Fold this protein.
Amino acid sequence: MHIAVLAGDGIGQEIMVEALRVLEALDLPDLRLDHADVGGVAYRNHGHPLPPETLELAKSADAILFGAVGDPELDGLRRELRVESAVLGLRKELQLFANLRPAKAFAGLENLSALKPEIAGAIDLLILRELTGDVYFGEKGQRETATGRRQGYDIMAYDEDEVARIAHVAFKAAQGRRKKLCSVDKANVLQTSVLWRAVVEEVAAGYPDVELSHMYVDNAAMQMVRNPGQFDVMLTGNLFGDILSDQASMCVGSIGLLASASLGEGTRGLYEPIHGSAPDIAGQGIANPCAMILSAAMMLRHSFGMDAAAERVEAAVAAVLAQDVLGHDLGGDASTTQIGDAVVAQLTDD
Ligand code: IPM
Ligand code: MG
């Protein structure tokens, strides 16, 4: 089990410590951890947010545990050197096109959701976000219009193969769940979405057991707060999935709770919380490590086929939250280390 550990910036460093302690507590055989810089810390140490040695390590590892990148002091850098380009570059270089972002209510946390408890308690959905295309990776730039005005542009595009491969992942995921797939688009306005919808329909023919629906993204955003329990798997493009997953996190209770897996064709994956580096609280020891710990659980499941170990970690996190060991994001006062301690204790008590 060769894992590239890329903690990155801000709270990434602090939450990664706890995720690694949880892995150690599992007594896994043949665990090999190799650390490397990524993001702002890599820019400062090596002049690039994704240095070649970090990319090489990521390519040679079986899995990548990724903390967060983001550094406001470096926001002025040109786009290729911005710290976000590190995670975008890893996703693209490793062809990690399928991003799984599960959002499930935690028993006992319903009152901490931004929604009414009875509505929040019903959340059990998976956002399946395409991760290597869309407006994120289209041609972009700034230019001058004919009248000499500055103009920014980003081309949104998906080709049919990109849509088909993520659609297959989504249908298979739905088959392993409640067999409902909602494809999110903006087909009333965008040509990209018209093709997206047509290709999803074609792929659907191979999965007659899955109930497919389509929803415009504005409606999906509204439905997610009105009645999130209606969703099982939500299939989205890159941009819409980015936005809807942040929204889903607050419906569950906190952005500090949602994990993600980014997968390609093989078993290698990148595992990261959906939240960022939170520079406002970095270094204070108060970040919630749950999303990072749950990302490590997703790694055990998807890259190493260790479903039982993944479930143990997920159950330990749920138990700790149910015992009211809550971080500052959830209105409690447990520190990053205390939350990590509680999860480790739960695992050793098992
Ligand atoms: C995410 C983040 C990234 C994204 C940023 C850091 C580039 O918001 O993983 O959701 O937009 O994909
Ligand atoms: Mg995001």
